[in-house]
Amino acid sequence: MSEQPLPAAHRLAVQALDALDAAAGPGSGDEELVSVLTVCEGLVRRLDRLVVSAVAALSRRGVFAERGYRCPVAALGDLLGWERAEARRRVRAAEQVCPRVGLDGAQLPARLPATAAVFTAGRATLRHVEVIATILASPAAGRLSPPVWAGAEHDLADKATLYTPGELHAYGARLVELLDQDGPEPDDEPPAPVNELHPTRHRDGSGGTLKGRFEDAALFDAIATVLDATSAPLTAEDDRTTAQRQAAALAEVCGYVLDHADRVLPEGGGHRPHLNVLIRLENLESRARAAVLDLGGTLTPPELRRLACDAAVIPIVLNGAGQPLDVGRSTRTIPDGLRRAIAARDGGCAFPGCGRTPSWCQIHHIQAWEHGGPTARDNLVMLCRTHHRLMHHPGWLVRLRDGLPEFIPPTWIDPDQTPRRRPLPHLIS
């Protein structure tokens, strides 16, 4: 009986990789090692092409949508353990360099046919495809006539075989700028001001950075006026820099807003904004060695004592297993105290790989309410909207083990259905 194609391909691929591994062994010469590198790169590019082709076919067939995923990116992240950026790169390549199907069922060529040709031939990488797609999706490229746009795509695909992705991006941006000689249409209306702010938390939980710009003069002046009014030196001996005083002033203003949240802030995630301080029971008994904020930041003992002195603090005490001590009551509606306990345990969306904070999440009944599931701590899990919807679609299962949520993937993602759990830094001793 002949071997099935996929198992046979897997067996042969393992044999080939074993041979490459042997060729790169301790006894190999310099030239042989260099050749191993080039062979491996060629194989990686061919594997990328196979992956992109498979992603395109699955997307066309609606396989991911049938399994509860609105976009292939999230499905690939769960299936293959990719970061969202890696999954997005392959999905975008599939959309650009693979044949398409029209509304009438007819097969259409790839959006980037010249790029598809060099990618299929292994002369361009996934990153090259991403660069070309980004350049040709820019507003300037959108103003080019179809023949000029096609010519630019052909030129970029040709240069992809010679340039690194960074060099290709610089070349492509300049090329499109030269081709778009007329520029954007004149507009009597001034462009809308760009106002943006990006808070980024440090990975070690020690704080974060704020980066932003405000082109709206009124908004900027309002912020600058508040900072100016609250960042004056406290005493003649206050030797902090202006930047340090302004940082402290911004935090003080935000603290004041939180103190008066019932009058100035809307509800977030079904409850008023607040700061939760998570502290283990043993830490509390040993005079508070450490604590964690509900958004993930770590507090040192002096900071914890200062916060407890200066702010309204909601203590949530955890036992040795990281489980909040009992709060709330059994009811269909989630009481605020019970929500706080679930937020303290799960730290936001409990689904592996998700980073949504508690204010963006909902509470999910593991055993549905209509099927007799109680609104109790051991039957609730915190999920963002996307993963809450996924739990109501056949496939994924969620349960509590040792008092903490874990998720069992469907067999099409993991045939062994190995339970998965999101790391919770605030529970690490």
From TrEMBL:
This is DUF222 domain-containing protein. InterPro entries: DUF222, HNH, HNH_nuc. It holds the Pfam family HNH. Residues 180-190 have a biased composition (Acidic residues). Residues 337-389 form the HNH nuclease domain. It comes from the Bacteria. Belongs to the Rv1128c/1148c/1588c/1702c/1945/3466 family. It comes from Pseudonocardia hispaniensis. Residues 180-209 are annotated as: Disordered.
